[in-house]
């Protein structure tokens, strides 16, 4: 049965933690998940218990902790998963299908959007123990490995932060896949096109600014029209990349005017 909204898709994502040792991390994971609309947490053979510290780090996400399922094996935790994405801070020796968080977030959502799933099918995001990560055997249970492309000299994220990055990517993929149908997501999805505080400059205004800029650059002896090189072309490219609004144009023209006045005195 295909899911229809972004939340339907996210409801089929499970976050699986292997042998987590710190209760605070379990709480922080619950919070990270809930902020991204993912509420299904599975703990495999947890060393830590869900205690006060976990609840305190979960902040308003104690419900995710309350509903967390405990498994004694990874196999049990991913039994209903049609796709298992294993996260690892390091590149392991063995070759395995790999992807970026973004690519695999999209893949997770495209799998969950398929019509060939049963109602209880899930996609699992699998995370390792704080000190040791996932074992080779656990990684071999995964369809794909994903490494968050962090600083190569310091690439190991805190467990909950790794969960945050992955769940964010899955959420983004879900929102984008449902973009057309979800009105309330539009501002989140298209920040570029969200209502701007000033109207965008039109071509005439941009051209007027360019003429003014060139005049000013000549006036302050920065630009030699006899030997123009690519300066004006580069400035134009810069301005056209930046989605200038009318106020931006006014400010820059004010700068041109002031610089020209100064150069004439
Ligand atoms: N020392 C361990 C790191 C464990 S950090 C190791 O080298 O694997 C705990 C978990 O957080 C990891 O098992 C993984 O699930 C996740 N994690 C941390 N950094 C990550 C990264 N850069 N990319 C993907 N997952 C990461």
Structure explained in plain terms:
The protein is 45% helix and 12% strand. Mean pLDDT is 88; it is low at 183-194. With 265 residues, it is of the alpha/beta class. 32% of the residues are buried. The longest helix has 19 residues, at 159-177. It has two domains: 6-177, SPOUT methyltransferase, trefoil knot domain (Alpha/beta knot, 3-Layer(aba) Sandwich), CATH 3.40.1280; 203-263, Helicase, Ruva Protein, domain 3, CATH 1.10.8. The N and C termini lie far apart (76 Å). The protein contains twelve helices and seven strands. Helix 6 (101-112) crosses helix 8. Bound molecules: S-adenosyl-L-homocysteine.
Please supply descriptive tags for the structure shown above.
single chain; about 260 residues; alpha/beta; Alpha/beta knot; Helicase, Ruva Protein, domain 3; 2 domains; elongated; binds S-adenosyl-L-homocysteine
Uncertain segments of ≥5 residues (pLDDT<50)? 183-194
> Distance between termini?
76 Å
Overall average pLDDT: 88
* Ligands (ions, cofactors included): S-adenosyl-L-homocysteine
Largest sheet: 7 strands, parallel
CATH structural fold name of the largest domain: Alpha/beta knot
Report Rg. Answer: 26 Å
Number of helices: 12
Order of helices and strands: HEHEHHEHEEHEHEHHHHH
- Domain count: 2
Layout: helices, strands, pairs:
Layout: H1 6-10, E1 13-18, H2 23-35, E2 40-44, H3 52-58, H4 62-66, E3 69-71, H5 74-77, E4 81-87, E5 98-99, H6 101-112, E6 122-127, H7 136-139, E7 144-146, H8 159-177, H9 186-189, H10 203-219, H11 231-241, H12 246-264
Parallel strand pairs: 1-2, 1-6, 2-3, 4-6, 4-7, 5-7
Helix pairs in contact: 2-3, 2-8, 6-8, 10-12
């Amino acid at each position: 049965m295909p899911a229809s909204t972004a939340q339907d898709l996210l409801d089929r994502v499970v976050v699986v933690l292997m042998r987590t040792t710190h209760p605070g991390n379990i709480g922080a994971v619950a919070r990270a998940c809930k902020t991204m609309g993912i509420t299904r947490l599975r703990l495999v053979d947890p060393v830590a218990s869900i205690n006060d510290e976990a609840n305190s780090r979960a902040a308003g996400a104690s419900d995710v902790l309350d509903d967390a399922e405990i498994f004694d094996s990874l196999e049990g935790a991913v039994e209903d998963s049609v796709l298992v994405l294993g996260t690892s801070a390091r590149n392991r020796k063995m070759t395995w299908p790999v992807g970026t968080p973004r690519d695999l977030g999209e893949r997770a959502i495209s799998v969950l959007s398929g019509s060939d799933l049963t109602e209880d099918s899930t996609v699992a995001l699998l995370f390792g123990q704080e000190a040791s990560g996932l074992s080779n055997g656990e990684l071999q249970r995964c369809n794909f490995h994903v490494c968050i492309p962090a600083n190569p000299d310091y690439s190991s994220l805190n467990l909950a932060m790794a969960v945050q990055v992955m769940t964010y990517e899955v959420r983004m993929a879900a929102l984008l896949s449902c973009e057309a149908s979800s009105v309330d997501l539009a501002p989140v999805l298209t920040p570029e096109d969200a209502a701007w505080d000033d109207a965008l400059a039109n071509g005439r205004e941009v051209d007027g600014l360019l003429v003014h800029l060139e005049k000013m650059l000549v006036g302050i002896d920065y630009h030699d029209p006899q030997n123009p090189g690519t300066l004006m072309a580069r400035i134009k490219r810069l301005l056209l990349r930046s989605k200038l609004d009318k106020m931006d144009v006014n400010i820059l023209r004010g700068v041109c005017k002031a610089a020209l006045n100064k150069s004439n005195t």
